[in-house]
């Protein structure tokens, strides 16, 4: 891995480099995605089945696009019982964590006859997109469905690309079944996002779409936003490790490579105040590369977006992390909890040398659907709040409004909104 002594110029260059990965910069694909979305909107199932045949090589029709109970039973037979047991443990951890996020409606009653409050209501229908293709992502299924279930969403729909045999990966399908999906459809890509947003003859529309996907999925979510809600426009995966001389270079190198293997656009960055550690981590990363099955992808990722940044101090290391605002942030220092208190921008924070990032991906409980590409400056991990909406509650008695009506009328008239003022005034015209 390349080692860079960090200064203002190199920091600016690195931030510019990382931003090239932003899905908003892939304008050359937008016309293609827009065409797919519009065809689904106008032609429904006809376009959906055509795109599924073209992109996934699977022949779908109204009778086969929805997963049946029989298919679920068959898939259950194909899943390794040991993996099933692990998934159930993971589910329990995820559910327990997200149950802590539940917020209830509240009302505040005052003696003057006013009641103010907030009504929390679960979304009626949610669409969950799960990538398919060559790999299965049961962890993503659990992370996206369980918070919706905990929030109380009535209808949870999952879409995922089918194989050429017209089937869903059995592990993905069983994860959806266990987590509580009400419906599973065999559709992927931008066409599946459009189907969820606008509905087709076979797939009823939903109120919100969540879940990661490739650039076409990301741009489709962007295109349908406003017709439905979305969680975010996810970019490639990323990890940043803050480490000092006390860190084990072998652990740090292994953690960096764990994210670099996602794809060629993934980012893996070490920020340290120790040149000795920087050199050791670089050596360990090279050593690990020869042993790993996805070494070609990892090598490409590190060549493009992998850095070891050496700072003058731990304070500068923390400042660098806050500027990058990584999806995953590991803190492997002598006093990691102290460093954690200084972090403002990160999707998930992993503290200490035994809190490796894959712990969060699969098992610990906090959600692994996280803000990417610096959006941790203003976005949060997926959670229960993403699957509820809030309504303000206002009640005034006549006596309470009487005390305030002249002030409200004056405010409205200051904005030259005389109908607003009149709406209040008519309630007291007989008393004046």
UniProtKB/TrEMBL annotation:
PANTHER family: HISTIDINE BIOSYNTHESIS TRIFUNCTIONAL PROTEIN (PTHR21256:SF2), HISTIDINOL DEHYDROGENASE HDH (PTHR21256). The active site is at 327 (proton acceptor), 328 (proton acceptor). NAD(+) binds at residues 129, 191, 214. This is Histidinol dehydrogenase. Pathway: Amino-acid biosynthesis; L-histidine biosynthesis; L-histidine from 5-phospho-alpha-D-ribose 1-diphosphate: step 9/9. It comes from Enterocloster alcoholdehydrogenati. It catalyses: L-histidinol + 2 NAD(+) + H2O = L-histidine + 2 NADH + 3 H(+). Keywords: Amino-acid biosynthesis, Histidine biosynthesis, Metal-binding, NAD, Oxidoreductase, Zinc. Substrate binds at residues 237, 259, 262, 328, 361, 415, 420. NCBIfam families: hisD.
